[in-house]
Amino acid sequence: MTHRIRCFFVLLLVCCAPGLCLAQAAESLDAASQARYHALIAELRCVVCQNRSIAESDAPLAGDLRHVVERQIRAGQSNAAIKRYLVDRYGDWILYDPPWQRSTVLLWTGPFLLLAIGALLIAALMRRERSVPSEATIKVGRDDHGDRLGQILADDRANRSEPKQ
Amino acid sequence: MRWRVVVPVAVLIALVGLLGYGLTRDPHTLPSAYLNRAAPTLALPSLADETQAVRLADMAGRVTLVNVWASWCVACRSEVSELAELSETTDIPVVGIDYKDTRDEASRWLRRFGNPYARIAFDESGSTGIDWGISGVPETFVIGRDGQIKDKIVGPVTAEVRRKRLVPLIEQLKAES
Predict the structure, then answer these.
(1) Does A88 contact B32 at a Cβ distance shorter than 8 Å?
(2) Best mutation target, B135, B137, B152, to test chain A (most A CBs within 10 A)
(3) Least confident of A5-14, A16-25, B92-101, B154-163
(4) Which of A98, A47, A40, A94 is nearest to A71 (CA)?
(5) Does the bond joining B116 to the residue before it have cis omega, within 30 degrees of 0?
(6) B91 by DSSP, 3-state: which?
(7) Chain B residues with CB inside 8 Å of A87's CB?
(8) Cβ of A93 and B132 within 8 Å?
């Protein structure tokens, strides 16, 4: 039994090893550089498994790119310079936070445009809704269907003062 | 109230059209950041002879194909015959970049599947691969006479890609002086 448990822990360690390696990659950097390293690799997109950052990805190329970032931090490059280096090679695509430029205008404004269209639609619908009862009342009222109907409509109009205004 | 019917149907058709168009695009094919820009430096030891260097500059003035491959890359096997035929019919050199490989395995691979390359650069660390902005193997670049990257094929070169995309482009580039 204890042997099994030991086996389990060994297995657990083996499974965790890649994660340990990830963390170790930048261990020799000083604290500030390490913080920069971790922030940067979380902002860069893995070009192989496209919905992960290079911090999360196990792809060999993501590992290589982490090394590139680490080397450049060691060489004293600024964040902007490191990003420019990678954008030069892989395009804006590698940034999870794409810059504001002509090709990304729709990307950045799209959600707000959709929100505005939705708001306009709702406003238009609400205005129609509000105008519907009075239109109906006027129509029926004009039709002259006898005194009883006129009476009911008059009562009705008197009761609902709110929607008409 | 006809617009009550027309507008939702129009929106639906537009949406279906947009999503349908989205399906025809391959998200794995990234546009090369280098398109119509000077190709990055290629200066690596030769695969066959460590003491010799392979440089893209050696090809200056010629339309050239640069193909990134590796012996561990299964898809690369299928494009060997296409590259060989392309090189032969259009009379342009194919420069290979052997990406993250070992010399032994690469040599064995070339003997087994054929060697369509005029020169092969040996990129053991993969750093030249990063310089060229590759996201996987194989990738193929078309270099113009001016040393600029004119096109990039992600994935193996198939007979269709060769005939419809590469041959016309290469002939056009060769015609330019």
Answers:
(1) no
(2) B135
(3) A16-25
(4) A40
(5) no
(6) coil
(7) 33
(8) no
Which residues 60-99 of chain A have a CB within 8 Å of chain B?
A: 60-61, 64-65, 68, 87-91, 93
Q: Which residues of B touch A (CB under 8 A)?
A: 27-28, 30-34, 40, 100, 126-127, 129-133, 135-136
> Based on the domain organization, do A6 and A85 belong to the same domain?
yes
Total of domains in chain A = 2
Distance between CA atoms of residues A77 and B7, nearest Å: 54
Region B23-36: what's the mean pLDDT? 77
A20 pLDDT tier (thresholds 50, 70, 90):
very low
- The whole-number pLDDT of residue B60 equals 75
User: Largest Cα–Cα distance in chain A?
Assistant: 98
Number of structural domains found in chain B: 1
A164 has a pLDDT exceeding 80? no
Torsional class of B13: left (φ above 0), alpha (ψ -120 to 50), beta (otherwise): alpha
Q: Is residue A45 part of a domain?
A: yes
Residue B176 has pLDDT above 90, yes or no: no
Please report, rounded to a whole number, the percentage of residues in chain A having pLDDT higher than 90.
35
CATH of the domain at A21: 1.10.8.640
Looking at the fold, whether A94 and A110 belong to one and the same domain comes out as: no
Average pLDDT of chain B, as a whole number: 91
> With an 8 Å Cβ cutoff, are B136 and A68 in contact?
no
In-domain check, residue A164: no
ipTM confidence score: 0.77
